[in-house]
Every structure is written in structure tokens, then in C-alpha cells.
């Protein structure tokens, strides 16, 4: 998804003033805001859209997942009430970043979306514990199930590093890092990097 063109984003929120505020922050950070909606109405134009920012709700989450299916658009959810169930549902659905309204600032919004556009996840540290409480249906993979390289990459993911940072730290190419991450997700039966970090931490792999 990394490209020379400015990243494109669609903003969905039930409050117009919140939408306009996020749009202004992102436009100042060189994002192109394609449009806005409330509860995904009007329906976002997904073609060539890098990021869909939407306000979390059960039905909205399901609609957002269906909309971006096969398009490669990344999902970023804003959350008014952070609960274990909400975090579990979003991570399991493949949401790349979760931004609580109580801590949402111009900096956290821009930083979170830039991380997502770079192919990473943006999950607040205090949410990781919620994920560890989630007993997923993933494999119970012990430390021997991942090789040294895979565990090294996982540790750096847990530290919040992006693909480029991991590549520089381990002296790998970015392609190699992406391949390792793919292998880790497959072995742990996870859809997202956030899930993989949570499962690996719970299982004692990292």
C-alpha cells in the first residue's frame, strides 16, 4: 500500500463536527480525504481507497468489513466505549487500528493512520491486555513452533516497530520481513499482526 501518492482516506462518524475535525487534521498531514459519512451512509467509495476510518458499532463493523473485502482497504476504528468484547470483535475482523475517543488527538490520529498505511497495526498498549484475556480459537503453539527469526520479528512487532524499522534492526530486506510476518500469521492462525502479538504473548512465544 505504500505509494508515492498521498494516502486516501474516508471518514465515518455519527457527529459531523468530529468528521470535520478529523478531516482537517488529516488534510494538514497530506492525506486526501475522499468523503465522509455517518453509519456508512452514504456508502464509501472503496476503489483505490487506502483507509476507511469508521465509528465502531456491531452492525457498522460488519458492513465495513464487507465493503473492503478484496479491495485491500485498511480499517481504522474509533471507539467511544472500549470494552473487551469490542476489542475482540475488531481485532478478529481484521481492523488495523483502534483509536479510543478519550485519547484521540490530532497526533494520535495522524500517527495511527500513517502506521496503518505503512502496513502495520496501531493498537494502544492498554488494549493488549484485553486481547490476552481473549481465548481465541487459534493454535496453541509453543515456543518451538516458531523459529528464531520469526520470534525476533514478533518481538519487534510487539514493540510497535513497522516493517522498515524491523528490516533495519535485523538487517533484513522489507520483503523478507513481510514474508516472515506472513509465515507467523499462518502458523498462529491469525488474521492480523495485533492478533499474532497477543497470541504469541499469551503462549509465551515472546
TrEMBL record:
CDD domains to which the protein is assigned, alphabetical:
LuxR_C_like (cd06170)
Q: Which Pfam families match?
A: GerE
Keyword annotations for this protein, in alphabetical order, are:
DNA-binding, Transcription, Transcription regulation
Q: Which SUPFAM superfamilies match?
A: C-terminal effector domain of the bipartite response regulators
Residue ranges annotated for the HTH luxR-type domain, each copy included: 139-204
InterPro entries to which the protein is assigned, alphabetical: Sig_transdc_resp-reg_C-effctor, Tscrpt_reg_LuxR_C, WalR-like
Question: PANTHER family, alphabetically?
Answer: TRANSCRIPTIONAL REGULATORY PROTEIN NARL-RELATED, TWO-COMPONENT RESPONSE REGULATOR
Q: What is this protein called?
A: LuxR C-terminal-related transcriptional regulator
State the organism of origin. Answer: Paractinoplanes rhizophilus
Amino acid at each position: 500500500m505504500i505509494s508515492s501518492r498521498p494516502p486516501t482516506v474516508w471518514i465515518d462518524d455519527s457527529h459531523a463536527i468530529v468528521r470535520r475535525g478529523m478531516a482537517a487534521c488529516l488534510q494538514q498531514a497530506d492525506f486526501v480525504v475522499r468523503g465522509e459519512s455517518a453509519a456508512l451512509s452514504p456508502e464509501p467509495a472503496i476503489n483505490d481507497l487506502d483507509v476507511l476510518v469508521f465509528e465502531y458499532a456491531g452492525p457498522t463493523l460488519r458492513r465495513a468489513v464487507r465493503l473492503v473485502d478484496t479491495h485491500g482497504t485498511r480499517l481504522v476504528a474509533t471507539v467511544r466505549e472500549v470494552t473487551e468484547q469490542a476489542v475482540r470483535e475488531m481485532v478478529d475482523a481484521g481492523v488495523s487500528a483502534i483509536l479510543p475517543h478519550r485519547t484521540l488527538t490530532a497526533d494520535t490520529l495522524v500517527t495511527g493512520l500513517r502506521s496503518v498505511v505503512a502496513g502495520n497495526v496501531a493498537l494502544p498498549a492498554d488494549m493488549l491486555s484485553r486481547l490476552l484475556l481473549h481465548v481465541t480459537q487459534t493454535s496453541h503453539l509453543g515456543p518451538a513452533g516458531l523459529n528464531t527469526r520469526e520470534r525476533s520479528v514478533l518481538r519487534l512487532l510487539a514493540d510497535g516497530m513497522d516493517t522498515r524499522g524491523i528490516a533495519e534492526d535485523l538487517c533484513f530486506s522489507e520483503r523478507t520481513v513481510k514474508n516472515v510476518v506472513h509465515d507467523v500469521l499462518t502458523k498462529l492462525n491469525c488474521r492480523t499482526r495485533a492478533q499474532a502479538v497477543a497470541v504469541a504473548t499469551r503462549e509465551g512465544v515472546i
